[in-house]
Specification:
The protein has helices at about 5-15, 30, 35-40, 60-70, 85-90, 100-115, 135-145, 165-175, 190-200, 220-230, 240-255, 260-265, 265-270, 280-290, 290-300, and strands at about 20-25, 50-55, 75-80, 120-125, 150-155, 185, 205-210. The chain is of the alpha/beta class. A seven-stranded parallel beta sheet has the order 1-2-3-4-5-6-7. Helix 1 packs antiparallel against helix 11, helix 7 (about 135-145) packs across helix 8 and helix 9 (about 190-200) crosses helix 10.
């Protein structure tokens, strides 16, 4: 979710019902070296609370120092990313690579827990590959060194985002009588029906939604409505989609400037206009637009029903 779960995106998700939002993951090395990009990722608005700052790294001491720096930003919790399978992260021995070095993961987690007064949470995966899925025992061991909650993505690192998420193992972790901290599930939560099915299947304490919320902040509203009332609200009309897109875009401009916003916002257009065939030509034009005036012109021409 790099360059997606920034402050503007999190703010929009909160408007539609997200209970807890998590920052983009921040390199511990970048943070302790005062890298500008890493420092910017620490920023958040009060409307985002409760909010977690998510850090990753391969060195225990660097992660400890980074946690202390993250605490200075005054979030509600610190989240450790032991689940990212992206090659550039794995090559550094960080993210999901630590699933191949459980002792280091545990040492790192304990060091961070001791370095901050804030609750520390962990996001991880089932394991490194099909033959190495230690999450049942790993969750216990992470709990024993002091984490406040764990989120489990139902795939291995080798799977990346392919195939189907395995929620059976997530359910086993939740049902483990030794587990007393909250267990959250993640993976393939694409709509309200799936969300309820996974909650009923596993009994987890909550769901973490990532890719399905990209350009679709309404997913939180839909899931909450269905869980609370059994009613799934209709998909938003074009007018609401454009209004929320504009709000999100304006927040991005203020947060990261014109050039980065124009380039990085292209990741959201497909989500905002998903399922509306009439939007395809406008989406294609937005994907190639290079100026604010061009984007405004395209949005102004979109017909409302």
């Amino acid at each position: 979710m790099e360059d997606i779960t920034d402050s503007p995106f999190r703010s929009v998700c909160k408007q539609f019902g997200a209970d807890l939002v998590v920052s983009e993951f921040i390199s511990s090395e970048g943070l302790i070296r005062d890298a500008v990009k890493s420092r910017i990722k620490l920023t958040f608005g009060e409307e985002e609370r409760p909010v977690a700052i998510q850090i990753f790294g391969h060195d225990v001491d660097s992660m400890r120092k980074a946690a202390a720096l993250a605490e200075d930003a005054n979030p509600d919790m610190i989240d450790l990313n032991f689940g990212c399978p992206v090659r550039k992260v794995i090559k550094k021995g960080a993210g999901a690579a630590l699933l191949k070095d459980i002792p280091r993961m545990l040492e790192m987690t304990e060091a961070v827990v001791k370095a901050t007064q804030l609750p520390v949470t962990v996001k991880t995966r089932l394991g490194w590959d099909e033959e190495n899925q230690p999450v049942f025992e790993l969750a216990e061991r992470l709990q024993d060194v002091g984490i406040a909650a764990i989120s489990i993505h139902g795939r291995t690192a080798v799977q990346l985002y392919g195939g189907r998420a395995n929620w059976n193992l997530i359910g086993e972790v939740k049902r483990n009588p030794r587990m007393h901290i909250p267990v959250f599930g993640n993976g393939d939560i694409t709509n309200a029906l799936v969300a309820k099915e996974r909650l009923d299947q596993t009994g987890v304490d909550g769901l973490m939604i990532g890719r399905a919320a990209t350009g679709n902040p309404w997913i939180f509203r839909e899931i909450k409505s269905y869980l609370q009332t059994g009613y799934i609200p209709p998909q938003p009309e074009i007018g609401e989609r454009i209004a929320v897109l504009r709000d999100h875009f304006r927040k991005s401009l203020a947060y990261k400037g014109e050039r980065r916003t124009i380039l990085e916002f292209r990741k959201f257009y497909s989500g905002y206009f998903k399922g509306i065939p009439v939007m395809k030509p406008y989406r294609i034009r937005l994907m190639t637009a290079t100026t604010l005036s061009e984007i405004e012109e395209i949005l102004a021409k979109i017909p409302s029903p």
